């Protein structure tokens, strides 16, 4: 834990780890490239090898794909309470997505000219669902549910298998309910490679979405261009803006909620105008951490990734937040809505004391797949628009082409592209 004052002279030096956080360690890229190239060259053979090496699972060509019987059996292992939660979350997430589905439009800005846009859903997308220490059924809904709302016909999911080759029943049930077309028991870099390049039995996808560990993130970045991706996202992070009107136990609980994810590289930051509240929150964090099951992961974040920044006022707090560009920003202070409006970069903003970040992780509506590591300055979270192809529409009548021909010819001359100019001019010269 590190306490810092925004006004102290060495603030920049003290906050290097805070502001210069990478999405993943660059040194892992060479190993990731090797796996990607192997899968691209050797297909299923490489997938089977890496499933054994990294996940301890003995797979074959025949059982890479999860069968319908296994999916049906999973439903019987999921509690009624969990099924209700999955349905509620799916309704909320798809309902939000449906409000944002882009619509075609046209406009005539000048006589004889029609311009516009149309949108077509991608045919085949891939979703990476983390497994390991935290099988994220919620991520299924926050990715697949949105793709289904967009009208994507084929949604392919990959998720790491257990040592016996099994997939978490809750994850399988969520996949079925959300609308996954194909499920493969593939994890990590080799799962991303299968989606990006395809193999003898797996057809490649158009786009890969979904969070993952550092290796998954590096893999997605490296296959970008072969396929589209949603973003390059690193470890989870939360920043909280608070004043002395806030309950310290609330703040501590929210900071710890992101510290438990498991990599040890997560960050939790409090920005506050009260030194007394900061001390109370630190005490509450220490007390609550003792009660948590993921104590080792939490302890690593408490040691290296928790920052407590004292500011003079909420204007400074908004400045700190805008520069940090957090994945999750909670604003728990007086006039929280007004303070939130002053923040110019964040993945998602949670306003008021009754809006803890986990409502966004699970049930609120917007996707929890969000930019991290400061990339909220230039990336946005996953939305339904990300599953569409946008095509611009241009339609000219002859009179409009004649009117704009001098400008077209001028550009062709400046750029030395006489064939471009001729393509327009010949229509006016010889067209009927």
Summed up:
By secondary structure, this protein is of the alpha/beta class. It has helices at 11-14, 16-19, 29-42, 44-55, 68-75, 80-98, 137-150, 169-178, 188-197, 214-223, 248-259, 275-289, 295-304, 314-324, 336-341, 357-362, 398-414, 418-430; strands at residues 2-5, 105-110, 113-121, 124-128, 154-158, 182-184, 207-209, 228-229, 237-242, 267-272, 306-310, 328-332, 348-351, 388-396.
Backbone structural class: alpha/beta
The level 1 CATH classification of the largest domain is Alpha Beta
What fold name goes in the CATH topology slot of the largest domain?
Rossmann fold
Number of domains: 3
Quaternary arrangement of the chains shown?
A: single chain
N→C terminal distance: 77 Å
Mean pLDDT: 93
Q: Tell me the strand percentage band.
A: 15-25%
- Which descriptor suits the 3D outline? globular
Largest sheet: 6 strands, parallel
Task: Determine the fraction of residues in helical runs and give it as a percent range.
Answer: 40-55%
Name the poorly predicted regions.
none
Strands, count: 14
So how many helices? 18
User: So, CATH architecture of the largest domain?
Assistant: 3-Layer(aba) Sandwich
Radius of gyration: 25 Å
CATH H level, superfamily name of the largest domain: Nitrogenase molybdenum iron protein domain
């Amino acid at each position: 834990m590190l306490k810092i004052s925004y006004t102290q002279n060495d603030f920049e030096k003290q906050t290097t780890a805070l502001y210069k956080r990478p999405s993943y360690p660059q040194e892992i890229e060479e190993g990731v490239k090797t796996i990607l190239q192997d899968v691209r060259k050797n297909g299923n053979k490489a997938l089977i090898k890496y499933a054994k090496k990294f996940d301890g699972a003995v797979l074959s060509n025949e059982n890479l794909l999860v069968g319908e019987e296994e999916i049906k059996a999973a439903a019987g292992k999921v509690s009624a309470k969990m099924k209700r939660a999955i349905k509620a979350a799916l309704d909320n997430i798809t309902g939000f997505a449906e409000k944002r589905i882009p619509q075609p439009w046209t406009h005539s800005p000048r006589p004889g000219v029609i311009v516009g846009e149309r949108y077509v859903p991608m045919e085949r997308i891939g979703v990476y669902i983390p497994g390991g220490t935290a099988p994220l059924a919620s991520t299924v809904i926050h990715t697949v549910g949105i793709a289904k709302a967009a009208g994507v016909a084929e949604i392919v999911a990959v998720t790491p298998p257990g040592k016996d080759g099994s997939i978490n029943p809750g994850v399988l049930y969520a996949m079925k309910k959300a609308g996954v077309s194909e499920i493969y028991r593939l994890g990590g870099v080799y799962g991303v490679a299968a989606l990006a390049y395809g193999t003898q039995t797996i057809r490649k996808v158009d786009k890969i979405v979904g969070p993952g560990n550092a290796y998954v993130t590096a893999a997605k970045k490296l296959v970008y261009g072969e396929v589209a991706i949603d973003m390059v996202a690193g470890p989870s992070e939360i920043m909280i803006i608070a004043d002395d009107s806030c309950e310290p136990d609330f703040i501590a609980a929210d900071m710890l909620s992101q510290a438990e994810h498991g990599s040890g590289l997560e960050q939790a930051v409090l920005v506050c105008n009260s030194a007394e509240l900061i001390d109370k929150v630190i005490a509450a964090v220490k007390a609550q951490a003792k009660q948590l099951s993921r104590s080792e992961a939490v302890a690593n974040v408490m040691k290296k990734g928790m920052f407590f920044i004292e500011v003079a006022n909420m204007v400074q707090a908004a400045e700190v937040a805008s520069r940090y560009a957090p994945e999750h920003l909670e604003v728990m202070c007086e006039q929280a809505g007004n303070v939130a409006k002053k923040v110019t970069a964040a993945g998602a903003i949670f306003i008021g004391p009754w809006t803890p970040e986990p409502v966004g992780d699970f049930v609120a509506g917007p996707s929890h797949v969000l930019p991290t590591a400061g990339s909220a300055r230039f990336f946005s979270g996953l939305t339904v628009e990300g599953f569409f192809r946008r095509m611009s529409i241009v339609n000219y009548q002859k009179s409009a082409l004649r009117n704009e021909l001098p400008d077209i010819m001028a550009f062709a001359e400046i750029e030395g592209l006489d064939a471009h100019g001729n393509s327009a001019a010949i229509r006016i010269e010889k067209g009927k």
